[in-house]
Every structure is written in C-alpha cells, then in structure tokens.
Amino acid sequence: KLQDCQSAIKLEPPSPPYFSEKVQLYNKAHEEASNSLMAIECRVCGDKASGFHYGVHACEGCKGFFRRTIRLKLIYDRCDLNCRIHKKSRNKCQYCRFQKCLAVGMSHNAIRFGRMPQAEKEKLLAEISSDIDQ
C-alpha cells in the first residue's frame, strides 16, 4: 500500500531560485502597497478610506452621505455642539457631519468622472454648471 501512495503523489520540480526570488519581491511589494492603501483614513470620520471622493480621501459612508446631501439639496437642523465625527458616531449628527465634510475640503466641484457613462457625465456637468450660475 505504501508503494501505491508513493506512485500517486507527484512532486513538482522546485522552482528555479531566480523565479522564486522575483515572486517573493513582487509579493512583498504588492503587500506593502496594499497596506499603505489600507492605512489611508477618511478625512471626515477616520474610517478606512475607499478612495479619493469629492476632493478628499473618504470612506464609502461619507462619500454617499455627501453625495445625497448635495444631490437632494438637504438642509439639516442647526447644531451648535460641534459634535465629534468618528466612525461609530458619524450618523448621530448630520449637521456636524456635513460641516466636517466641507471643513476637510469636500466639494461637488471636485468630482472625478472615472467609470461613468458619457450621458451621465454630461448630465452631471450640466447640473454643476447650473449650480454655479445660481
């Protein structure tokens, strides 16, 4: 039986040292790049930033909050408490969250068009230019 097991197991030849060194260097560089991207915090709440949105590094939550506030022209009840905005508390005070979005530099004029269909880009540009004219 031992002989049957040995014949069923096929060993791959070892990788040439040059190739394995290249793979190790690539893996190390890729890991370092991923870690540095993960280290970027949302400028609004401190959560992990998903990218550069509306002119600042922001998480998906703050990106969506800012987008909805601008698109729907929402006005929040005034708050004079200057609430601290953190990942766990960011949904408690919309007024202070929006003020922080503005304070860190979020702007609807800083939209980057990325993977957006041409028709949608044109519609958005028209909205922006009409907002500027008003």
From TrEMBL:
Q: Give an example GO molecular function.
A: RNA polymerase II cis-regulatory region sequence-specific DNA binding
Which GO BP annotation is one of this protein's?
Answer: negative regulation of cholesterol storage
What SUPFAM superfamilies has UniProt attached to this entry?
Glucocorticoid receptor-like (DNA-binding domain)
Where is it predominantly found?
cytoplasm
Which residues are in the Nuclear receptor domain? 39-113
UniProt keywords, alphabetically? Activator, Biological rhythms, Cytoplasm, DNA-binding, Metal-binding, Nucleus, Receptor, Transcription, Transcription regulation, Zinc, Zinc-finger
UniProt-listed InterPro entries: Nuclear_hormone_rcpt_NR1 (IPR050234), PPAR-gamma (IPR003077), Znf_hrmn_rcpt (IPR001628), Znf_NHR/GATA (IPR013088)
- PROSITE patterns on file: NUCLEAR_REC_DBD_1 (PS00031), NUCLEAR_REC_DBD_2 (PS51030)
Q: Which GO terms describe its cellular component?
A: cytoplasm; nucleus
One family name in Pfam for this protein: zf-C4
Location relative to the cell: Cytoplasm; Nucleus
- Explain the purpose of this protein: Nuclear receptor that binds peroxisome proliferators such as hypolipidemic drugs and fatty acids. Once activated by a ligand, the nuclear receptor binds to DNA specific PPAR response elements (PPRE) and modulates the transcription of its target genes, such as acyl-CoA oxidase. It therefore controls the peroxisomal beta-oxidation pathway of fatty acids. Key regulator of adipocyte differentiation and glucose homeostasis. May play a role in the regulation of circadian rhythm.
Subunit note: Heterodimer with other nuclear receptors.
Question: Which family does the similarity line name?
Answer: Belongs to the nuclear hormone receptor family. NR1 subfamily.
Q: What is this protein called?
A: Peroxisome proliferator-activated receptor gamma
The uppermost taxa in this organism's lineage are: Eukaryota, Metazoa, Chordata, Craniata, Vertebrata
